[in-house]
């Protein structure tokens, strides 16, 4: 069975006992930015004693000026109601071009990720090319909460593309942070920081017309006050959740430039909507430190997840094992185990082979350093097969290669058999 472009609506989690506004919000999932209709009068009476109906009766539009207190307050409340309905996920797979596709998202979810972004989708190409839509955007009923990310510079094109996915995700996200040359040539991503009126129009177009909220992912300006003004402009335009990468547009090398958590902390303090942090998330100690130091509502990890999809379950690669602290091998879990699980997910949820090839190199990079001849055999293959990739793992095993993942005794160690000690996910 081909699972490409197979969509299912997410099920309401009955364990989430929200307050009156949250409950009312769940009754109107197609009216995130609109007022209730008369057909729900009986349901409105359920919450009639909360004094929230006066807010719900106000017309909502992100085009209202910030001085329209009632509309702004209701917009903020609904932004939080939606986030709470999703369970307020803290551990999130960041958007990665060609790398955060469905099988990889599902692998990360198995090992502790609580939400995920799709790879960045080009809004115009996505809208114009049905074949690309079928190959680049796949999901399934377990793939929630889900952010679908687009790059764009035209509000009308972005809106039409977003309408194709809004029923199959929890946020439509605008990429305002890509710093690569291709983004400069295409005039999108972080290069829209030079044209804030266009950014505002992109956000407003989605906020005014979609049935799901809009989120944005940004980089910071060199000047902190410019960053705060930028973030507040996005909030005023209708952004319901903001992810902040704590590096500037020119700081492309994550290993050379540390993300500025203080800048993220300042953005969080300046906004009223949920804020996520991105940058310097290499293992669970970083996750916990970032949450504590910045006060954000969740963290994103990107590159470190490619080498260690079990990061959010408390595992770490040998590079990050503190020699002064006792590390334990987590029930003999290693990257080859994770690769086999990933390949099985790819057989179930087909994706382009270029994505699979990339994950093989990322997961087995350290193994290939020991046996470069195996990597050379992989590189010689113009066409890959699952049989060949499974055989690579078998060959490495037979050569006696094993590079384990480690878990600190104070963290959760999750293996294919389940958690091996107390979960780290409790806050």
From TrEMBL:
Q: Short name of one Pfam family for this protein?
A: Dus
The record's Gene3D superfamilies line, in alphabetical order, gives: Aldolase class I (3.20.20.70)
Q: What class of enzyme is it?
A: oxidoreductase
Q: Which EC number(s) does the record attach to this protein?
A: 1.3.1.88
Sequence ranges assigned to domain DUS-like FMN-binding in this UniProt record:
93-382
**GO molecular function terms noted in the UniProt entry:** flavin adenine dinucleotide binding; tRNA dihydrouridine synthase activity
- Named cofactor requirement(s): FMN
Q: Which reaction does it catalyse?
A: 5,6-dihydrouridine(16) in tRNA + NADP(+) = uridine(16) in tRNA + NADPH + H(+); 5,6-dihydrouridine(17) in tRNA + NAD(+) = uridine(17) in tRNA + NADH + H(+); 5,6-dihydrouridine(17) in tRNA + NADP(+) = uridine(17) in tRNA + NADPH + H(+); 5,6-dihydrouridine(16) in tRNA + NAD(+) = uridine(16) in tRNA + NADH + H(+)
Recite the UniProt keywords alphabetically: Flavoprotein, FMN, NAD, NADP, Oxidoreductase, tRNA processing
What InterPro entries does the entry give?
Answer: Aldolase_TIM (IPR013785), DUS-like_FMN-bd (IPR035587), tRNA_hU_synthase_CS (IPR018517)
Report the sequence similarity comment from the record. Answer: Belongs to the Dus family. Dus1 subfamily.
Give the protein name, as stated in the record.
tRNA-dihydrouridine(16/17) synthase [NAD(P)(+)]
């Amino acid at each position: 069975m081909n699972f490409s472009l197979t969509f299912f609506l997410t099920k309401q989690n009955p364990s989430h006992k929200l307050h009156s506004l949250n409950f009312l919000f769940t009754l109107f999932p197609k009216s995130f930015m609109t007022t209730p209709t008369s057909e729900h009068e009986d349901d409105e009476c359920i919450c009639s004693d909360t004094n929230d109906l006066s807010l719900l009766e106000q017309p909502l539009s992100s085009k209202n000026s910030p001085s329209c207190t009632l509309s702004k307050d209701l917009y903020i409340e609904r932004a939080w109601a939606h986030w709470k309905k999703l369970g307020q996920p803290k551990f999130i797979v960041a958007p990665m071009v060609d790398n955060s596709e469905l099988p990889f998202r599902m692998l990360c979810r198995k090992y502790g990720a609580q939400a995920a972004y799709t790879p960045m989708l080009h809004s115009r190409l996505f809208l114009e090319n049905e074949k690309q839509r079928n190959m680049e955007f796949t999901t399934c009923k377990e793939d929630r909460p889900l952010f679908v990310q687009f790059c764009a510079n035209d509000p009308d094109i972005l809106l039409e593309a977003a309408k194709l996915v809004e029923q199959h995700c929890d946020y439509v996200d605008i990429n305002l942070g890509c710093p690569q040359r291709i983004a400069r040539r295409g005039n999108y991503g972080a290069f829209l920081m030079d044209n804030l009126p266009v950014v505002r129009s992109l956000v407003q177009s989605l906020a005014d017309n979609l049935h799901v909220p809009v989120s944005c992912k940004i980089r910071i300006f060199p000047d902190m006050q410019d960053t705060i003004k930028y973030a507040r402009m996005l909030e005023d335009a209708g952004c319901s959740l903001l992810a902040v990468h704590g590096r500037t547009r020119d700081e492309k090398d994550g290993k050379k430039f540390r993300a500025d958590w203080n800048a993220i902390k300042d953005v969080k303090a300046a906004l009223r909507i949920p804020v996520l942090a991105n940058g310097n998330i290499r293992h669970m100690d970083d996750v916990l430190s970032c949450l504590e130091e910045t006060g954000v509502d969740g963290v994103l990890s990107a590159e470190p997840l490619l080498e260690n999809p079990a990061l959010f379950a408390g595992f770490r690669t040998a590079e990050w094992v503190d020699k002064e602290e006792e590390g334990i091998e987590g029930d003999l879990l290693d990257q080859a185990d994770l690769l086999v699980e990933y390949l099985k997910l790819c057989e179930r949820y087909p994706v382009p082979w270029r994505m699979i090839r990339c994950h093989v190199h990322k997961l087995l990079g350290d193994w290939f350093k020991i046996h470069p001849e195996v990597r050379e055999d992989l590189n010689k293959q113009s066409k890959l097969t699952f049989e060949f990739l499974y055989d690579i793992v078998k060959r490495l095993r037979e050569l006696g290669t094993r590079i384990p993942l480690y878990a600190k005794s104070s963290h959760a160690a999750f293996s294919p058999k389940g958690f091996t000690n107390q979960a780290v996910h409790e806050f």
